[in-house]
Amino acid sequence: MTAQNIMNPKQRVAVHAANLVEADMIVGLGTGSTANLFIEALAKRNRNEHLKVTTVSSSAISAVKAKEAGLPVVSIDSLDYLDMYVDGADEVTPDLTLLKGRGQDLVREKLLASAADQFYVLVDESKLVEHIGQNFPVPVEVLPEAWKLVLAQLKQHGGVGELRMNAAGDNVAFTAHGSLVLDMSFEHIDSLELTMLLDTIAGVVEHGIFSDLASAVFIGGEQEVEEHWR
Ligand SMILES: O=C(CO)[C@H](O)[C@H](O)COP(=O)(O)O
C-alpha cells in the first residue's frame, strides 16, 4: 500500500491542494485542522522541491505552525497581492457558499479569501450541507459595545443566539481584533438574505458566510479528491 492510499480524507485533500502550489507563489494559510495539514504538506514540498514560496497567515496559531514547519511567513500589510488562499470550512452548500469561523480570525480569513487570485477550500464529505446554518450557527463578529444592539436587531429577523465563550468557559471569547462573536441560528432565512442583512447592520465587523469567494472546493474522500470549480 502506498503512502497516498493510507492518508485519511483530510490529509488527502491537503496534499492535493499543496500540489497546486508553484514556485515563488505567495500563499495564504487558513486556520483549523485541515489548514494545518495543508501547512505541513506545503512545507514538505517547499523543502524538497525548493519552491521558494512566501506565506501569509490568517491567524497567529497558523503562523506559528508554518514557521515551525520551516515556511517563511510575512505580515499581511506587506502584501498587495497573493496568488492563493487555502483554508477549511465548516459548511459548504451545492453553490459553493461557505460557512466559516469556528476560530477567532474571521476578519483575516475573509480578507485573504477575497484578495487571493485563487481561493481553495478543503473539506471532507461531513462538511457538505443543503443550506448554510444546517449544522452550525452563523458566527457574527461584533464591536464589543454593539453586541446587545446587534443581537436585538437579529432577533427581530428570527435569529436566536448568544455570545461565544472562551475555551475555559469563564469569559467571553475575544477575536484577534478584540471583537466579540455572536453565534446565531435562523429558522427561515436564506444565506443571501442573511448576508445582505448582516452587511447592513452597524456594529457588525464581519460574519462567517462566504458567498461567491471560493474558486474551488476540494472534497477529500477515502480514495480520491473531488474538485468543484466555480
Ligand atoms: O473556518 C475555520 C476557522 O475559522 C476553519 O477552517 C473551519 O472551522 C474548519 O476547521 P477544520 O478544518 O478543523 O474542520
Which helices and strands appear, and what pairs or packs with what?
Blueprint: H1 9-18, E1 26-29, H2 33-49, E2 54-57, H3 60-68, E3 73-74, E4 82-87, E5 91-92, E6 98-99, H4 106-115, E7 116-124, E8 138-142, H5 147-156, E9 159-163, E10 180-186, H6 191-200, E11 204-207, E12 209-210, E13 216-220, E14 225-229
This protein binds ribulose-5-phosphate.
Ribulose-5-phosphate (5RP) binds next to helix 2.
What does this molecule look like?
Strand 5 (91-92) and strand 6 form a beta hairpin. The model has no long low-confidence stretch (mean pLDDT 95). This protein starts with 8 loop residues before the first helix and ends with a strand. The chain is built from six helices and 14 strands. The strands form three sheets. It has a seven-stranded mixed β-sheet with strand order 3-2-1-4-7-13-14, sandwiched between helices. Strands 9-10-8-11 form a four-stranded antiparallel β-sheet. It folds into two domains: 9-129 and 211-229, Rossmann fold, CATH 3.40.50.1360; 138-207, 2-Layer Sandwich (Alpha-Beta Plaits), CATH 3.30.70.260. It has helices spanning 9-18, 33-49, 60-68, 106-115, 147-156, 191-200; strands spanning 26-29, 54-57, 73-74, 82-87, 91-92, 98-99, 116-124, 138-142, 159-163, 180-186, 204-207, 209-210, 216-220, 225-229. By secondary structure, it is an alpha/beta fold.
